[in-house]
Specification:
The structure is a single chain. This protein has four helices and 22 strands. The protein is mainly β and 296 residues long. The strands form five sheets. It has a six-stranded mixed sheet. The protein starts with 5 loop residues before the first helix and ends with a strand. 33% of the residues are buried.
């Protein structure tokens, strides 16, 4: 058997390098960060996330594995503007992408209450794709942030006692084009009997955000129009004299904000008669920050 000469080996190596450059030159890169909304008095929501799926315009699914060695991510560590990188500059074929979703492991997720009790979380089927619209050309790069709305995603299991079900509700924002809304809630309103209902100060209180101006607020109900698109917990500040909330990343647009003190009773699988105590409308522009006070 004839051995290749040094010149032939050099030629083959050059061809391989050229082919690799050609192939990789047709790729783009994408990074995906994860953030979450709060979940009231819940202490931890530990989710076993395997990776991220991207849907292209032809309907093909592209699986990207999660970076890092941790088995789970406590998503409640990443609220109020914090985030964690799930995918860092992963190579992706150039083209147009229209959907993004998290990919979860079948087991290993848990919810931990403020008292320390731990409950298994069962993932209900494959998550739906959240809408995106990104066009990636050769050597382009993109960063997307997926926000898991935990209040709208988690609920007590109806089939297994002592378990929670996760049917993920996600929204995706381009952090270079999104805006934020921060604000306060009138202290007298927070202390009123209509809000406290005999409970600890701030318990069950949250602000819901709806797409559009002057929307009549309602609870979140799966697969139903008019539901809120995002939620934010009310933070009781250290002196218990002021109350604040934050939507760290929202797409530009018009929103209605509504205060409820019954968010802890909002089950996303059923229609709940929860009440709202204050509303306001706001216009949010790209890379803008708005402040809105909610009062009676």
């Amino acid at each position: 058997m004839r051995m290749p000469t040094a010149i032939e080996r050099l030629r083959d190596s050059a061809l391989a390098a050229a082919l690799l450059a050609l192939l990789t030159g047709c790729e783009a890169r994408v990074s995906v960060d994860l953030a979450a909304s709060g979940h009231g008095s819940t202490d931890e929501v530990n989710l076993a996330i395997d990776g991220v799926d991207l849907l292209d315009e032809d309907g093909s699914n592209h699986e990207l594995d999660r970076d890092g060695d941790d088995d789970t991510v406590d998503v409640l560590d990443y609220i109020d503007g914090d985030s964690v990188r799930l995918v860092d500059e992963a190579r992706l074929a150039q083209g147009r992408y229209t959907g993004l979703r998290l990919r979860f492991a079948d087991s290993g997720s848990t919810l931990v209450t403020a008292s320390g009790a731990s409950y298994p979380i069962d993932v209900i089927g494959n998550a739906s794709f959240a809408d995106i619209d990104i066009e990636l050309g050769e050597d382009d790069s993109a960063e997307q942030q997926v926000i898991l709305e935990t209040r709208f995603s988690l609920y007590p299991s109806t089939t297994v006692n002592g378990h929670y079900s996760l049917q993920p509700v996600m929204r995706v924002v381009d952090t270079q084009r999104s805006g934020s809304i921060t604000g306060s809630v009138d202290a007298e309103l927070m202390r009123s009997s209509n809000c406290r209902q005999g409970r600890a100060l701030g318990e069950g209180a949250a602000v819901y955000a709806y797409s559009g101006a002057n929307v009549s607020p309602r609870d979140y109900l799966q697969d139903t129009g008019g539901s809120p698109v995002a939620s934010a917990d009310i933070v009781v500040n250290d002196d218990a004299a002021s109350f604040s909330y934050q939507f760290a990343a929202l797409k530009a647009g018009r929103y209605t904000l509504a205060l409820t003190c019954n968010a802890d009773g909002d089950n996303p699988t059923v229609s709940d008669a929860i009440s709202f105590l204050a509303t306001a409308s706001v216009q949010l522009s790209e890379q803008d920050s708005e402040s809105v006070t909610l009062s009676q």
